[in-house]
Amino acid sequence: MEWSLWEISLAVAAGLLVGFSKTGLPAAGLLIVPIMALLFPAKLSVGVLLPMLILGDTLAIGYYRHYADRGELMRLAPWTLVGILAGAFFLSQADNAAMEKTIGALVLLALAFEGLRAVFPRISTDHRLFPWIFGGGAGATSTMGNAAGPIVSLYLLSRSLSKEAFLGTTVWFFLVVNCLKVPLFVHSGIITSGGLIFSAALIPMILLGGWLGVTVLSRISQTFFNRLILILSAVVGLQLLIGH
């Protein structure tokens, strides 16, 4: 397969964004989803992206492994597993268009909740219902399209974590979730030898993106950090819903 300069540029951007999203701005990772769908068929792109994400998670663990909030991870864990299984079933049944629209709708619903939380600050995610909703939604959307970033981000933002704790918890969450998805994706045939070769070729870009993420994170404020996450989540959620 011959790649055009435009396709090579998209691939490089995807690699940089993987590293950057894992160490600096998690919501930026959602921009990878439509990029990969331009390079590969939608379902196959999910499998091609997964090894890249696992590498990015492993890289980020080196920076933020001591900052994770274990309590929040345990609150999300059981319902995330349920969501992964539900997402795997949906992925096996739905076509590409249905999958994209479903993910976009879930992202926008999560953003709507965050808007309500801003208007009504007494709304709390302490109730046991919220880990069910966010954990299950994150597991399902991660499996269907590697697009759970906004859901996890919105939940953790509501927990008032520092930037470092936010990233540490996010990284551990996705490393475990992504590793759990591997056997499901292999079984469904969307992880292929060609996809693994593509992922390996982008390792230098992922490493560079990881370094850029750490550099940028130390230079931005908490408020700007949170707002940028919300804006990027809204943009990509709309993009997925209306189609790219």
UniProtKB/TrEMBL annotation:
Broad class of the protein's primary localization: membrane
This protein's UniProt keywords: Cell membrane, Membrane, Transmembrane, Transmembrane helix, Transport
Topology within the bilayer: Multi-pass membrane protein
InterPro entries (alphabetical): TM_pro_TauE-like (IPR002781), TSUP (IPR052017)
Pfam families reported in the protein's UniProt record: TauE
Localization, UniProt: Cell membrane
Gene Ontology CC: plasma membrane
Residues passing through the membrane, by range: 12-39, 46-64, 76-91, 103-120, 132-157, 169-190, 196-217, 224-242
Superkingdom field: Bacteria
Family in the record: Belongs to the 4-toluene sulfonate uptake permease (TSUP) (TC 2.A.102) family.
Protein name: Probable membrane transporter protein
Organism annotation: Candidatus Kentrum sp. FW
